[in-house]
Design brief:
mainly alpha, about 75% helix
């Protein structure tokens, strides 16, 4: 089993509708052959945040019942992808700047973020300190890693640009936030593969001093840089395919990281 604990499928009518809509959109996007560059990868980042923010809102019970089946995991990521793909299609047909794609994702993300924050403030459980700490630390670490990597391998950084840096940041943020959640706040890990890495960290003699999450962080950071390194030639030679892979790598990191930060902030996590 590789899906996170708590994963569930929606009722059949919702499932049929979401699969049909996803398949139809995939066919349309394939036929339209839309431009997919590194700026497009960056523009989709707010949509990645939106999907995970919606799932966090689902977890804390603030999603309206009528759309709740579409906000569970893993359905929420398909639902969000359909919204993002539709926005992308519309913006491309309007010949609008890709910043509009980012803006639309940001607006969608604001809805669950506002709802979860509002309810947490009302309940007295809004504690954003550790989330802010993880975010700031992740920015510093990711910038440092990306700068060092760029100095060592400029031929890799050149074709991927900021989109490559975003992919590395996404996984660094996932690693840092997971470490904070496990070692500081006492949260559990839902994904079996991630839990396995945390078990490795817990079994090492460094656990009493460094905690259990550092192994997970190191693996995530190294894996992100390695994947960007492997993808960079494809981005240069076949931009559409390369950037699609870069988009996937980024989403796999930024999605869980966002979920962690939102949950820590609204669940009354101990600390500051």
């Amino acid at each position: 089993m590789v899906l996170p604990a708590g994963s569930t499928l929606p009722p059949v009518p919702y499932l049929v509708a979401i699969l049909a809509a996803g398949a139809l959109l995939a066919v349309v996007l394939r036929r339209q052959n839309l431009h997919l560059g590194t700026n497009t990868v960056l523009a989709f980042a707010p949509w990645m945040v939106a999907g995970s923010a919606i799932y966090a809102a689902y977890e804390v019970g603030v999603v309206p019942p009528i759309v709740r089946p579409l906000a569970s995991s893993p359905t929420v990521y398909v639902s969000t992808a359909i919204l993002a793909g539709t926005a992308w299609l519309g913006i491309e047909h309007l010949d609008a700047d890709e910043r509009w794609l980012a803006a639309s994702g940001g607006l969608v993300a604001l809805i669950p973020l506002w709802a979860t924050t509002r309810d947490a403030l009302a309940a007295g459980t809004f504690t954003p300190g550790w989330s802010l700490f993880a975010a700031v630390l992740s920015v510093a670490l990711a910038v440092g890693l990306w700068w060092c990597f760029g100095r060592a391998r400029p031929e890799v950084v050149e074709p991927v640009g900021l989109a490559g840096g975003l992919a590395v940041f996404a996984h660094v943020l996932d690693g840092v936030s997971t470490t904070v959640g496990i070692d500081v706040l006492g949260f559990g890990e839902q994904t079996p593969l991630s839990a396995l890495l945390l078990d490795v960290g817990a079994a090492l003699p460094t656990a009493p001093y460094l905690g259990t999450g550092w192994v997970f962080f190191v693996v995530k950071a190294v894996l992100a840089i390695g994947l960007v390194w492997l993808i960079a030639p494809t981005v240069r030679d076949d931009p559409r395919m390369g950037n699609a892979l870069l988009l996937l790598v980024t989403a796999v990191g930024l999605g869980p990281a966002t979920y962690n930060l939102v949950l820590f902030a609204v669940a009354g996590a101990a600390g500051f």
